[in-house]
Design a protein that fits this description.
The chain is of the alpha+beta class. It is built from one helix and four strands; from the N terminus they run H-E-E-E-E. The mean pLDDT is 86.
Length: 83
């Protein structure tokens, strides 16, 4: 079973392998969670081109197999609007 540090490393490596298709910079770790004994979710954020002079970030969730360290999926994480 992998630990959280290894899961984070696997998610970052996955992003770096996709740089040709997924150019991102300023990668930040946002959240980690073991959602069940066999799956870890890692949320990373990335700088996005400034819109109207305002820097924004994209958030993505990576699901990592806790036994093998294999990235099983990557999806966009939407943030709820603050009230």
């Amino acid at each position: 079973m992998i630990d959280v540090k290894t899961a984070v490393r696997k998610a970052v490596e996955y992003v770096q392998e996709l740089q040709e298709y997924f150019p991102r910079s300023d990668i930040r770790l946002e959240e980690t969670e073991f959602v069940d004994p066999g799956l870890c979710e890692i949320t990373l954020s990335f700088s996005e081109n400034p819109m109207f002079g305002k820097l924004s970030r994209i958030y993505k969730i990576f699901r990592i197999d806790a036994e093998t360290g294999e990235v099983k999926s990557m999806k966009v994480r939407s943030l709820a609007a603050a009230s």
